[in-house]
Design goal:
CATH class of the largest domain: Alpha Beta
Number of helices: 19
Distance between the termini: 55 Å
CATH superfamily of the largest domain: inorganic pyrophosphatase (n-terminal core)
Number of strands: 24
Length: 541
Amino acid sequence: MRRMKKTLIFGHKKPDTDSVMSAIGLSYFKNMLGEKTEPRILGTINKESAYALNYFGVKAPKYLNDVKLQIRDVNYHKGFFLKDTASIYDAYQAMIQENLTGIPIVLENGVLSGLVTLKDLSSLIINENTENLYTSYDNLINVLSGEEICRFSDEIIGNIIMATYRSTTFMSTVALHSDDILIVGDRHSVIEYAIESRVKLIILTGDSFIKEEHVELAKKNHVNIIRTPYFAYKVSRMVYLSNYVKTTIRLLDPVKFVETDFISDVVDTNNKLKHTNYPVVDKKNRGLGLLKITDLSEKDPKKVILVDHNEKLQSVEGLDEAEILEIIDHHNLGSITTNNPINFRNMSVGSTATIIYLLFQERKMEIPREIAGILLSGILSDTLILKSPTATYRDREAVALLSQMAGVDYKEYGMNLLKAGTSLVGMSKEDVLYNDYKLFTVNEKNFAIGQFFTMNFDEIAKELDEYIDVLDRVADANNYVLVALYVTDIIRNGSYVVFNRKGSGIIDLAYQKQMEEGEFIEGCVSRKKHVVPAIMEILES
């Protein structure tokens, strides 16, 4: 039975405090309801988020690179492989039982040795020399449904001989050696001759009787003896199938895949090779099973819940290959579509963390201090300590109650939180741009808006041309019509606007005047309300 995988909950790329805290808070909420979820992040935690997590003693979520379909998301044949000392017969039976045409072969330590196919077995049985045996005593017992009479060797190597002549003719014309394997019925004189010749093995067919004196002689001469109910003809056909399956390997270095390989890469490879079967291994090349190419139709995509975004460009790579279960957001409707109906909660509030708080309230669930603290941090960050025009009465109510649960003065804590995120120490210009960075699409035109909070724009102003050069490079490399950085000063209640040179026309139209680089726009503190709608209106027209 396939174990239920965890649902991954995450915010947007270049995560801000609200997206990080909302993912953590929602994951806790879901898990308390008995679901299995895990919060993740799509980028590096910023200084502000790190401050909040450290303050309330909450572990940062793990990084999520993508949700693309991998081999482990496919119902391939896990555990389907054989050790190289199994018999050819075992390999054949395993393939028939599972209705497969190939089986991976592994060494004793589990490392992949090769791949055997039904085609290989058919070719060997028809074309190869079937007079040689290289197998184990146990394999012979198993394949021939045999009975142990005398056993002195675990491994049997030799040449197969059948006693088909008259006894006198056989003994006078056939010289037996220590590496011979004799198939014989109840021909006691031939049996005695073989034991005295110290052959490697005697296979008694048809449950033949063997004299006690011959058994004692075999023990003295260390001759292996097996008795089988099969008659000579069947034994002659079956005995070769007891050979080690490793003797049949033709693909010693088959094309294989690691369980974490992407399905898209498997498809690309198969389009070139057109194989039916591929071994699946771990990173140490140990066998895990077999992927039949038709298994790709039985997918179990990663299940995800999105918070604080519903724009495809802002989300994780491979989102189209995942199953979106739910979206919780406070932004305008974006470009994400789903194949099935989902729970979508979108509210006009200042923070996604406010919506998560309301979920707890609606269920009358207790919120522990650390979860209250991180939800409070998300709200204070996104609403600029409730000073942003996006702040609503729901945000204010949430802050009042969450600050009590967290045991902090929200104004004092909020100011320390924002200060922690405004330091430029150790940050490159790219770090400043990508600290809180989002992509948007209008009429097939893409634009990006970065927002950075600081109380000292002078440090940025000193290197303004270099910041503009960075915006130019990002815009040109990605074919964005605009890349702008809004440096927000919450004390002055406004933002300094820096933009790529080719995007100046869009900025001029958005503010209905010729804008200077680094110009301060009073009252512009919310990207959602003050920035994105104005730019979208220009691009839509």
